[in-house]
């Protein structure tokens, strides 16, 4: 086993890489796309899975005089604004007796002559969706709820993660968890899923109504202002009409005060954070001035913390030897290479989806320099990693901030982090892998790709030990290894290029990158580099090197150099 040290940065031989840990803690950090069987997602279920007829299976909207009146009353601008009149005109043809799915509603608003998806602001779009949404009733007269059948999940990687998480929760003293859905613009919409996620495993879970509105209200003694705060902070309208029992929970939690909220958090050993927008999640941890809310320490100290997508990214933070650990908030790899990283708020979450961003801001790499919850002080976390080809954006942010370690978690994959007294271990579970990046110089990085059964350990002196599992003799190279440099910013683009380097007999592969400023990517296999075949046909990788430099050679593609 080789040991790779990050101590080159300092003249001192012994460096405390991260602060002392007062207790053991386990983080289960999922890269997103935890494809789980539910009434909302039956495609992820075993064929034999059934749901009650009145289980919630989609979001529905109604277009009638009553809902249009709500829309006009709550429109952000003057109710005679051209945008509102255009919306009302487009919806004239709707059937008032019909309930529309989201795609059907968009179709009404997106015609050859009218493209409201692009012209409406994010606030206007949010008001439109919220005021037209309807809450169908179940047979018992209550709101229809999403039913989760996690044990019936037919996606092997997801099922492995769900099984592991359930066993971890069951091993805690309380055997109970709280779910926080603050990453969503509408935090009530995902409450059923997370509260019921482990019902089939016999575990007790509860949605914690710690929303951005609740955090502001309870900390300022303004519980009566919750509806207005929802509108102000997350652009959420009329949620009490669609999710009456959830907003009542929120109101009750607020009325009990801060001490009760802290006690509630401390009553469980496990907290789950959902996916969405990590900048929204941070609003339940820090006030507008950046001061920590009184319940932050209770969240940070839970023995088991689980996150997916934004719920993983929010764990970044704290301080290590290289300074404050930032939290990534937006951006693509291509934009990162062309424009760099920006310490500023990310664009609106629907900015890119509806082409409403200005000056290409939709793709800009943005970050929060002080990080999020701070349970992961070892480096910068990123998610949806290989699928969205985010290696360059993580490398760019490491360069910008001076951090030395980056962790990129693939979709349907979990990075399992266990804090011990003198070290922290990293294991991988699920369908794909986790990238570990070490910044060696501003343009040179060491690359590891860990898959299930591989392991890494980081000690307090900053020494990272990577151990790959034994090779699988009958593993076959995956067809996606055909590396097209023109697709390096596309799905699995960077992953495929590096995997192809494993398959090659050459020690160095140089590619030009199609950017405004000509740059080239060099991938180097050193004498201690290792590529080990895994059962899924991909290579686990240890100690590969890649360089990013200005292009100084002729334009070639796929040529090899010693």
TrEMBL record:
UniProt xrefs under InterPro entries: Class_I_gatase-like
Source organism superkingdom: Bacteria
Extent of the signal sequence: 1-24
The keyword Signal is annotated on this UniProt entry: yes
Alphabetical list of SUPFAM superfamilies matching this protein: Class I glutamine amidotransferase-like
Keywords carried by this UniProt record: Plasmid, Signal
Protein name: Cyanophycinase
Organism of derivation: Pseudoalteromonas xiamenensis
């Amino acid at each position: 086993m080789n040991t790779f040290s990050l101590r080159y940065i300092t003249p001192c031989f012994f460096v405390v890489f991260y602060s002392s840990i007062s207790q053991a803690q386990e983080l289960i950090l999922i890269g997103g796309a935890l494809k789980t069987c539910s009434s909302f997602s039956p495609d992820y279920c075993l064929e034999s899975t059934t749901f009650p007829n009145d289980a919630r299976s989609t979001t529905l909207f109604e277009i009638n005089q009553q809902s249009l009146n709500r829309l006009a009353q709550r429109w952000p601008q003057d109710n005679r604004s051209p945008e509102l009149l255009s919306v009302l005109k487009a919806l004239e043809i709707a059937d008032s007796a019909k309930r529309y799915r989201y795609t059907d509603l968009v179709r009404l608003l997106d015609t050859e002559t009218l493209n409201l998806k692009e012209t409406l602001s994010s606030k206007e779009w949010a008001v439109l969706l919220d005021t037209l949404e309807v809450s169908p009733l179940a047979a018992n007269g209550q709101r229809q709820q999403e039913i989760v059948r996690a044990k019936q999940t037919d996606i092997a990687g997801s099922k492995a993660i769900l099984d592991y998480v359930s066993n971890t929760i069951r091993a805690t003293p309380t055997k109970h968890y709280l779910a926080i859905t603050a990453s969503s613009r509408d935090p009530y919409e995902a409450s059923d899923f997370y509260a019921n996620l482990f019902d089939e495993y016999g575990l007790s879970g509860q949605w914690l109504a710690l929303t951005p509105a609740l955090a502001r209200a309870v900390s300022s003694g303004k519980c009566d202002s919750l509806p207005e705060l929802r509108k102000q902070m997350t652009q959420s309208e009329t949620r009490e009409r669609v999710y009456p029992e959830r907003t009542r929970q929120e109101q009750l939690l607020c009325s009990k005060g801060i001490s009760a909220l802290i006690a509630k958090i401390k009553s469980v050993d496990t907290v789950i954070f959902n996916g969405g927008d990590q900048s929204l999640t941070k609003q339940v941890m820090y006030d507008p001035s950046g001061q920590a809310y009184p319940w932050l320490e209770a969240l940070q100290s839970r023995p088991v913390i689980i996150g997916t997508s934004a719920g993983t990214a929010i764990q970044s933070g704290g301080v290590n030897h290289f300074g404050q650990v930032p939290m990534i908030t937006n951006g693509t790899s291509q934009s990162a290479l062309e424009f760099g990283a920006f310490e500023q708020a990310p664009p609106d979450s629907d900015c890119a989806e509806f082409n409403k961003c200005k000056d290409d801001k939709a793709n800009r790499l943005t970050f929060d320099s002080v990080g999020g919850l701070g349970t992961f002080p070892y480096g910068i976390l990123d998610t949806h990693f290989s699928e969205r080809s985010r290696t360059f954006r993580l490398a760019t942010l490491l360069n910008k901030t001076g951090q030395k370690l980056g962790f990129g978690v693939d979709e349907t994959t979990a990075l399992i982090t266990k804090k011990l007294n003198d070290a922290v271990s990293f294991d991988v579970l699920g369908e794909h892998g986790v990238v570990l990046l070490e910044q060696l110089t501003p343009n040179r990085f060491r690359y590891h790709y860990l898959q299930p059964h591989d392991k890494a350990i980081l000690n307090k002196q900053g020494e990272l030990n990577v151990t790959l599992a034994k090779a699988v003799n009958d593993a076959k190279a995956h067809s996606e290894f055909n590396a097209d440099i023109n697709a390096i910013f596309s799905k699995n683009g960077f992953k495929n290029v590096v995997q192809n380097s494993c398959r090659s007999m050459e020690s160095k592969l140089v590619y030009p990158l199609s950017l405004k400023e000509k740059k080239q990517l060099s991938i180097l296999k050193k004498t201690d580099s290792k590529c080990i075949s895994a059962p899924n046909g991909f290579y686990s990788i240890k100690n590969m090197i890649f360089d990013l430099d200005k292009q100084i050679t002729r334009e070639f593609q796929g040529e090899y150099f010693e």
